[in-house]
Specification:
alpha+beta, eight-stranded antiparallel beta sheet, two-stranded antiparallel ribbon, 10 strands, 44% helix, 20% strand, globular
Length: 304
């Protein structure tokens, strides 16, 4: 049942001129979805959140600078990119109109398709960062475009996901066969610090449970752990992502609260303790202030 609480497929913050807004491809009921970049323009983004999906991106227009972890790539010709859920990425478009496709598929989708899982493990395009960015030769581009067009149209069919997973395997095999991997540049100190911050944030959040609550919650605590001055950490995050440390922490905790409310049977008291609140009323206030709904109302409405 759809409700007013359903999260948008794409929540793109567009109000940060000269900055890199946050791009959130959010919770969606579909296990896999294909997008046309001419329609759903990725624009400029740096993903600051743990995802529950894999992403494959083919860029054929609208080129720019792409960072994957601590590696930076100049994308100036057709390129395929394989992005693991744990990867921290950024994109700055520098020229042209966006063209190409991208698709998202969840971890559960892989679990239901053993052959796809085996292909992902064998070819290592998602896990081996030296193979995650693939240059496409001009004579190979038409074949890749046909694969993407087929996947885009298949998603409307009843058994479309079955066909799409087969197309993904073909696309991965062709990409691995080409072996045209560009040499990355170093991203520099600022991206190194940003990467370490997001890694630490994910490490903290991934260990959340109601017996051992999150340890780091403030900008000062994160900066101290990273051995950086909090003002410097705030400045580089604001410069590169459009948000300061506290907003990233708050946004990530809020995402995790939603997941815990939807995917666990924990009590509200257990969830509030796990995410670092001293009592449930403070947790209720935090959640309602940022979503417009109490935690209990959010859980009941979505699960109806």
């Amino acid at each position: 049942m759809k409700t007013s609480l359903d999260l948008k497929e794409i929540d793109l913050l567009r109000d940060f001129p000269e900055l890199t807004p946050i791009y959130r491809e959010a919770h969606d009921s579909k296990q896999i979805k294909v997008f046309n970049r001419e329609i759903e323009d990725c624009r400029n983004y740096l993903s600051a959140n743990r995802r529950d999906f894999y992403k494959i991106l083919m860029i054929t227009g609208g080129y720019g600078i792409f960072t994957l972890g601590l590696n930076k790539y100049l994308i100036d010709k057709p390129t395929m990119i394989f992005i693991h859920p744990n990867d921290i990425i950024s994109w700055q478009k520098t020229s042209g109109e966006s063209a190409g496709y991208y698709l998202l598929f969840k971890k559960d989708f892989i679990n239901h398709h053993p052959m796809l899982n085996a292909t992902i493990e064998r070819l290592a395009l998602f896990n081996d960062k030296s193979k995650s960015v693939v240059c496409i030769e001009e004579n190979d581009l038409p074949g890749f475009i046909r694969l993407w067009e087929s996947m885009y149209s298949e998603q409307e069919n009843q058994l479309g996901s079955e066909a799409i997973q087969a197309y993904i395997q073909l696309m991965m095999i062709d990409s691995a066969r080409m072996s045209k991997f560009p040499v990355p540049e170093s991203t520099g100190d600022e991206y190194d610090h940003i990467h370490r911050f997001f890694g630490l944030l994910e490490e903290e959040v991934s260990n959340i449970n109601y017996e051992k609550p999150i340890k780091l919650r403030t900008a000062q605590e994160f900066a101290d752990t990273l051995k950086l001055h909090p003002n410097y950490l705030n400045r580089i995050l604001k410069k590169r992502t459009g948000q300061n440390v506290s907003k990233h922490i708050k946004g990530r905790l809020l995402d995790e609260c939603k997941v815990l409310l939807l995917q666990t049977t924990w009590t509200l008291e257990q969830i509030s303790y796990a995410v670092g609140f001293s009592d449930q009323p403070n947790f209720n206030f935090f959640f309602k202030k940022n979503t417009g709904f109490t935690p209990n109302a959010f859980r009941k409405s979505i699960l109806q």
